[in-house]
Amino acid sequence: MTVVRCRSYPAQTFDGCSACISAALDAIGQAGIFVLGRAAPGLTSQAQGPLEMTYLLRVKLFDDLGERIGSDEIEAEQTIEAVDLPDEADQAVGEHGDGGEEAEGDTSMRLEDFQTVLDRLELSQAGPHGLCGSIAGHLYAFQQLVGTFEIEVVRARSSRRGD
Fold first, then answer.
1. Which of 24, 69, 73, 85 is the most exposed, having the fewest neighbouring CB atoms within 10 Å of its CB?
2. For the whole model, what pTM was predicted?
């Protein structure tokens, strides 16, 4: 068995290895959870109080030719304590800070190496406390286009904490 190290991080490029694809799918999933966290209180008619959200997301990543290069099914939970004003949220999207000191010899891509640009957001209410729909857009790594992504929101359910 031959083990090849990921060259993406030192070369500042996305090389399509399994580690890069896994990191890309994680970044897409995190972007989807962020968007759902922002949209859920208004769409589920629960705009006040902490919400417990559970998600089942099907994430797909396609190259620039439209060929699927990765997919994952993500189950996640999130507590939404407060909802920021839209202006504050717009400023926060895409900001990652300086990321701290990088570990010596770190050669794998990190979530902050990716940027998602949303092209389509189609969410609708599914019952009194749920959401369904899709999120789609473009994924960039090191300011270069990796490809497009789709997130199918299979299940997004909310409940007030303590219910």
1. 85
2. 0.74
